[in-house]
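With this grant's support, we have paired protein sequences with C-alpha cells. One protein thus recorded is set out beneath this paragraph:

_____
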Amino acid sequence: MKLLLLILLAQLCSASLVPEIEKDPEYWREQAQETLQHALRLQRLNQNVAKNLILFLGDGMGVSTVTAARILKGQLQHRKGEESLLEMDKFPYVALAKTYNTNAQVPDSAGTATAYLCGVKANEGTVGVSAGVTRDRCNTTKGQEVTSILRWAKDAGKAVGIVTTTRVTHATPSAAYAHSANRDWYSDGEMPPDALEGGCRDIARQLVENIPDIEVILGGGRKYMFPKNASDVEYPHEDKHRGTRLDRRDLIQAWYKAKPPGKVAKYVWHRRDLLALNLSRVDFLLGLFEPGDMVYELDRNNETDPSLTEMVAVAIRMLQKNPRGFFLLVEGGRIDHGHHEGKAKQALHEAVELDRAIGLATRLTSVQDTLSVVTADHSHVFTFGGYTPRGNPIFGLAPMQSDVDRKPFTSILYGNGPGYKIVAGERENVSAVDFAHADYQAQSAVPLRQETHGGEDVAVFARGPMAHLLHGVHEQNYIPHAMAYAACIGSNRAHCNAASRPGASVLLPFLALLFLLC
C-alpha cells in the first residue's frame, strides 16, 4: 500500500511539472512552424558590408555552460528555465569551432585567443605569435608576430575597443595587441631575466606602446601599470595590490603621453567617474577598476565597480562616434575562473551577465550594419545531469541517491577539480553542506587544485552582415577571417569593389540605366 501511494505521489508531482499549454500538441506544432518560417526568411541573406564588428568571448563558455546559463537565466525570472532563451540563442547562425592549439589537444586561453583574434593557430601559453614560438623562449619571438583583427580594423580607420572582466593584460585581450612568448608576462615584474635581457617587452607595456590609439580599454589590471610597491588607489593598505613594475614606470602617464595633441584622454578607476563622463568630449578612454581581475558579478561592489553591461554600453557609445564604424572585443573572462575554482554558481552568473551585455549591444546597434559574433575559447569539464525533473533548481540536487554509496549528489558536477572531498573515508554527503552557496565547490571525480579546460568544440553564434559565413564546423582561426571579409578589412578585400560584390551583376544594369536617365 505504501509503495502504491509513493508511486501515485511521484506521478502527481511529475504531472505538475508540465505547463498546461505544453500538454496540447498544437503548442509544439505551432512553435515549430514559426521556427520554420523564420528559417525560410533567412534564405534572403544579409550581404551588406559590416560597418561594425563585435566579438563576444565567453572564456570557458562551453556548450554545457551555455545550456546551464540559459536555465539559470529563466529561473532568475521565476520560470522553469529550460524553455528560456539567452540573447545569443536568438542569433540565427550557429557553428562549431575546433579549439585545439598547435601543440595541445585540450587548449589554453592564449593559443586560442591568437586563433580567433589573429587568424592563426598557435602554441599554448603564447599570444599574438605563430606556432614558431616556444613558450617562455623570448629569443623565438622575433619575426613570428601576427596581427589581430583589432589592428586590421584600426588600419582601416575604424575605432577599436577592448572590454573585459579580467585584467586587460590577460590572455584574451592581450592577443588583440601584444606579441609574447608567455601569456603571464603581465609586467616586467613577472618576466625572467633572460627574457628582459633578450629585449622582450611585458604585455602591459605593449598595451600602451603597440597600438597607442585604441579608443576604449576597460577592465581590471591596475597593478601592472605602476612601479613596484606603489600603493593602490583603492586598496592602499593591501600589499598584494601594490604595483609590480621593476622599471619604475607609470604606464598610465605613458598612456596619456602617447595620445595625439589636441585629443582628450581620460583614465578612470571608479564606476562613478566612468558613468559621469561626457563621452562626446572624450577621444580615448582607459578604465582599470581593480588591481587584478575584476570581482565576480555576484560579489561586485556596484558603487565602485561597473558591470560588464555598463562597460559595454560606454564602449559602444564611444566607438559609435567614428563614422567608419568600429571593432569591439567583449570578454566575459571570469566564467573561466569560476569553473577553475569549481564554483559553478559564480561561473554561470558570469555567463548570464555576458548575455545581458549581448542583449544591450543588440539594442544599441543595427543588424543591418553590425556583425555580432558570440563564441568561447574553450570548454570546461563541467556538466549537469542526474535525471533532474523539469524546473529543477540548476544548483540543486539530483532526484536520486547514488546506488553505490547511497548518498545524494548535485546535478552539477566536474570531471576534475577542487571539489573532490573525502569525509571519514567516503564521498562527502552534500546534504550536510550549503550547496547553493555562491562559493560552493561542486564535487569532482578527480582531485585537482584547479579544474581543467575541456577539449570539445565550442559554439559560435552569429548575427548581421555575412553572418551566414559561420555555418558549420570550423577551425577556430577561421573566425576573424570571416569577420574581416564581412567588414572589408584585412588582406582579403578584392570582393569589396562594386563590380565584384555579391549581387552586383543584378545591380549594375540598374545603375547603368539610372546613369543614362540622369
In short: Confidence is low (pLDDT under 50) at residues 1-12, 499-518. The first helix runs from residue 2 to 16.
